[in-house]
UniProtKB/TrEMBL annotation:
Residues 8-186 form the Nitroreductase domain. One of its GO terms (molecular function) is oxidoreductase activity. Keywords: Flavoprotein, FMN, NADP, Oxidoreductase. It comes from Arenibacter troitsensis. This is Nitroreductase.
Length: 210
């Protein structure tokens, strides 16, 4: 069996972490690089990645996540925060990076700039927020897969009050919104859910060839 598939079968949404084990700085950097290499629409990456290590801060966040133990027991807590709104600067900053990275004169990118702005700028503020939040889930998928490949456990989490997270982390004043959380670390042997058989739709009902 392909080792990548084996690792995906190995992973599960870890409910109880071993508090004595920490993800090494080396492995953490690999996870963050994998996440940063995620695809995003137009390549714009309209989000930020927050790594919450501070124990006191995580204790403060836990009540805003329905008291779930993963918030404080995991080695690290990662918050994927989408831009809640944006203007032309999102495109301008990206194309400035393209120009510098690829050595392309800015003028040569004007057509692409105009195209992106014509598609994105007319969106309502709520539509922009929805679009940017969707981009975080692409990054989430990469993070989960990369962690499985390193045999690092994860628990993606939507069960939290984003408004409270935004207030505690000061995200709103930065134009950001906590979209999804990922607790990372190593499973506790007391977590019985690790022994459950993985349940997924069969390929016949999930996949259609046309």
């Amino acid at each position: 069996m392909n080792s990548y598939i084996d690792n995906l079968k190995w992973r599960y949404a870890t409910k109880k972490f071993d508090t004595s084990k920490k993800v090494s700085q080396k492995d953490l950097e690999i996870l963050l690089e994998a996440t940063s290499l995620s695809a995003s629409s137009y390549g714009l990456q309209p989000y930020e990645i927050l790594v919450i290590e501070d124990a006191a801060l995580r204790n403060k966040l836990q009540p805003a996540a329905w008291g779930q133990s993963q918030i404080t027991e995991a080695s690290h807590l990662i918050v994927l925060a989408n831009q809640s709104n944006f203007g032309e600067e999102l495109v301008d900053d990206y194309l400035e990076n393209v120009s510098e990275t690829r050595g392309i004169p800015s003028n040569d990118l004007q057509g692409y700039s105009d195209f992106m702005k014509s598609k994105l700028m007319p969106l309502s503020e709520s539509a922009k927020a929805t679009w940017t939040a969707r981009q975080t889930y692409i990054a989430l998928g990469n993070l989960l897969s990369a962690a499985a490949d390193l045999k690092i456990d994860t628990c993606p989490m939507e069960g939290f009050d984003s408004a409270q997270f935004n207030e505690i982390l000061g995200l709103s004043k930065k134009g950001l919104n906590a979209a999804v959380l990922v607790a990372i670390g190593y499973r506790s042997q007391e977590d019985q859910t690790q022994h459950y058989k993985k349940v997924r739709k069969n390929k016949e009902s999930l996949i259609t060839f046309i």
